[in-house]
Write a structure and sequence with these properties.
By secondary structure, the chain is α/β, with parallel strands linked by helices. 31% of the residues lie in helices and 24% in strands. The strands form four sheets. Strands 3-4-6-5-7-10-8-9 form an eight-stranded mixed beta sheet, sandwiched between helices. Strands 1-17-14-13-19 form a five-stranded mixed beta sheet. It has a four-stranded antiparallel beta sheet with strand order 2-16-15-18, with no helix packed on it. It is globular, with a radius of gyration of 24 Å. Bound molecules: zinc ion.
Length: 468
């Protein structure tokens, strides 16, 4: 006993050197409060001031002016020249992205993703569908392949989803989300980021998420590293009496759509149903919202479900391919003003008209999106292969990870929260190491690890998988 006791300091020292590990001192085991928001980046803060409610108003009114943007509506040269139908809307969005590209010296690459959707339930005959997007390439060779993405759908619909004749102004659903993606492109293209940002507008959401499905599948098949996708759909802040313009809902999936059977078994056994990548993104948006609250003007309200009852959206196309993605939607929808022919009946005005949209509100949502995109594109990649060592039965918790790919991490932080808490509660800075042991039982809390750069930009946190 005595001899082994004497050897202990040396053994501990050797173990520390070999594992690059730190042991959180017992007196410090509470950590600091994770409610401490991320550091404000003054460049990002200044960019948010460039987001213009007036430009957003002009873009939404322009999109509504194409009469209908139903995916089945005309897209031949004559209709494009006449300015009615989805073809004209698509060409206009493309020309706007090209104008932003010109204004930033060609920093944006404007692209289309076109394909023919075969006939189906909501597609009477094979139909050409085109997604339009602009790419702001990351400036760091090691980080340019990392992608964060913002999207909205530019198609619209009247009461009957097959009616190509009726007007479908779609000002809120979803010219508002399209305008968010476009305004983020205009403002953020004036900046440079280590990672890549894609500003996407998709078609055929209303016919069955066809545009986003095609795009997300292409991204998966081509091995794109999309770290986060922000879907904005119905973010117009409809001016109904019970609207709350101070919040925007952020929906995130719990059990991941792409979870394997093995994942589901682990989630069932250990309580991971509240810790999908998409839910980490939702918490990250809450963090961004607190840090930039003065610049943004709207507060994210996290809703821990994939989407609203009986409704779906383009974020789920990304989720299905295994990507992290959330949906932004106004607090209270007015169902007289969406998926309705424009008309007045019994004194009630129906139809998705621009006059019901609150353009200041949309600009606040655009700022929250821009702040999230800019923060993630400035941050290091999340740490890789984060593991929680569970071989020995003990009351400490040892975590290991591999360095954040791309070499931008200056240090790492271990986060934890009670299993019943919606957001991260505590943080322990552990330095530039790849292992940490905390004097706190893994059975009682949920852990995560994030990478932080020299300026305080935070990566998305990663919840460890158990290593036996
Ligand atoms: Zn929509």
């Amino acid at each position: 006993m005595i001899s082994s006791f004497e050897k202990r300091p040396l053994l501990v020292a050797v173990w520390l050197v070999l594992s690059f590990s730190i042991v959180a001192p017992a007196q410090n085991q509470a950590g600091s409060s994770a409610a401490e928001p991320m550091a404000v980046d003054s460049r990002i803060s200044a960019a948010l001031q460039q987001v213009s409610a007036e430009r957003i108003r002009a873009n939404i009114e322009k999109l509504a002016s194409f009469g209908t943007r139903l995916t089945l509506s005309a897209q031949d040269p004559a209709a494009i020249a006449a300015g009615r139908g989805i073809g004209a809307a698509r060409e206009w969005i493309k020309s706007e992205f090209e104008r932003y590209a010109k204004d930033c010296g060609g920093c944006l690459e404007v692209k289309t993703d076109s394909f023919t959707e075969p006939a189906g339930d909501r597609i009477p005959q094979p139909t050409e569908i085109t997604n339009v997007y602009a790419v702001l390439k990351g400036t760091d060779a090691e980080n340019t392949k990392r992608i964060v993405l913002v999207t909205g759908h530019y198609d619209s619909r009247p009461s009957d989803v097959l009616d190509v004749k009726a007007d479908a102004p779609g000002a809120n659903d979803d010219a508002s989300g399209t305008a968010v993606s476009m305004e983020c492109a205009r403002v953020l293209s004036k900046m440079k980021f280590p990672a890549t940002i894609i500003f996407l507008t998709v078609a055929s959401e209303e016919q069955g998420l066809n545009g986003s499905h095609h795009f997300a599948k292409m991204a998966k098949d081509e091995g794109w590293d999309i770290e986060a996708a922000l879907n904005n759909d119905i973010v117009g802040g409809d001016k109904s009496a019970e609207q709350d313009h101070s919040v925007v809902r952020v929906f995130s999936e719990g059990l991941p759509a792409a979870a394997t059977e093995q994942d589901v078994r682990r989630i069932r056994g250990l309580g991971g149903e509240n810790d999908s990548g998409s839910r980490q993104l939702a918490r990250y948006i809450a963090d961004v919202g607190r840090a930039y609250s003065k610049d943004v003007g709207v507060e994210p309200l996290l809703v821990f479900r994939l989407d609203r009852y009986l409704r779906g959206g383009d974020h789920s196309s990304f989720n299905q391919q295994g990507f992290t993605a959330v949906r932004f939607t106004e607090f209270r929808e007015d169902f007289h003003h969406q998926h309705q022919n424009v008309r007045t009946e019994n004194g009630i005005e129906y139809g998705d008209l621009a006059k019901f949209v609150d353009f200041d509100y949309v600009s606040h949502v655009a700022r929250l999106n821009a702040a999230t995109l800019a923060s993630l594109a400035s941050a290091p990649a999340p740490p890789a292969n984060v593991h929680l060592l569970t071989k020995a039965l003990d009351n400490d918790s040892a975590l290991t990870w591999e360095a954040s790919p791309g070499g931008r991490a200056a240090e790492y932080e271990v986060l934890w929260r009670a299993t019943t808490s919606p957001e991260w509660e505590h943080v322990q800075k552990v330095g530039n190491v790849l292992r940490a042991t905390l004097n706190r039982s893994k059975d009682n809390v949920i852990f995560a690890v994030r990478a932080v750069d020299a300026d305080g930009h935070r990566s998305l946190p990663v919840v460890p998988v158990p290593e036996r």
